[in-house]
Amino acid sequence: MSSAPSPARGFDHVETWVFDLDNTLYPHHLNLWQQVDVRIRDYIANFLAITHDEAFRVQKDYYRRFGTSMRGLMIEHGMKPDDFLDYVHRIDHSPLEPNPALGAAIERLPGRKLILTNGTRTHADAVLAKLGIDHCFEDVFDIVAGELSPKPFPEVYDKFLARHGVDPTRAALFEDLARNLAVPHGLGMVTVLVVPEKTREVFREYWELEGHDADHVDHVTDDLTGFLQRLPDRLPLDRPAGGPR
């Protein structure tokens, strides 16, 4: 006989708030990450001397099998990552606009706030600055800090937790890909999937849309700002909201 699903974890014990960056802290419809996606394809086409159609196939195959296209290129072709990272993140951040409501909602949360991203710190700094929320976060843990190991591989979460002294049983993670929440949930983190409706324009592969109703997803929201604004009402009153420390 199958057991009933575990109840979703709450937030009253959370002291560290961890956020993914792309397609989580800004709306999917801006398609900022789509610029990176195109530049990855261009890089692969040039690096492997193949057509863009073939580069697209390689890109998605490596992304699924290795976590990032970069990791696949490193493993399969011995690519050095520095030029790749610099090239693919050289994008136009102008579609982003300040989001003071999101910043205020993040600042009200009690405890530490950190970024955990498969992108670079340079890209993360640019995004946070454009959104006007860079002051909200203590630090950014990027793909370089993870020694080029991306989410969803377990080692990147272990490195992140160790680097920042985070107790996963007292932390929450906000992500736009369900598969990136499986390991954190297993470590004891509260998991929140941030995926609006009509995401096919952003997530073009069927497997990227899987897992929304998985046991390792505690909460799902299509409005991160609204979700965070409602959280303090459910948190203990004697826990002051805190910014970077």
Automatic annotation (TrEMBL):
Q: Record's InterPro entries? A: HAD-like_sf, HAD-SF_hydro_IA, HAD_sf, Pyr-5-nucltdase
Q: Which residues cross the membrane?
A: none
Q: Which Pfam families does the entry mention?
A: Hydrolase (PF00702)
**Domain of life from the UniProt record:** Bacteria
Record SUPFAM superfamilies: HAD-like
Give the protein name, as stated in the record: Pyrimidine 5'-nucleotidase
Give the source species: Rhodoplanes tepidamans
